[in-house]
Amino acid sequence: MISTASGRAVRYVPLEEDDARERLGQVGLSDERIERLIRFYRLVRVGEASSVSPSVREILNRPATPFEDFAQRHAALWRAAVDR
After folding, report:
1. Mean predicted confidence (pLDDT) in 14-36
2. Distance of alpha carbon 12 from its chain centroid, rounded?
3. Could you state, in order of their start, the residue ranges of all structural domains in the chain?
4. 10 Å Cβ neighbour count for 6?
5. pLDDT category, 84, cuts 50, 70, 90?
6. Is residue 81 scored above 70 in pLDDT?
7. What is the spatial distance between Cα 6 and Cα 74, in angstroms, rounded to a whole number?
């Protein structure tokens, strides 16, 4: 979806947790923040973050935005990110 929105090939490249720790440390994140991100992405990898809670509609007073719509709406940002 990001590829379509940006007009460029974008691919996901998984990182081993130790590589992710190293790279996140290089950009200045604290060890505590790094470990929180690593734990979050563990949950994502096993599908724990795949469903949308009904609370989204209640909190935002609108339905959740499909990712494809989000990617299209922010296409200029995706293009800028792939130009780096």
Report:
1. 96
2. 11
3. 2-82
4. 20
5. low
6. no
7. 9
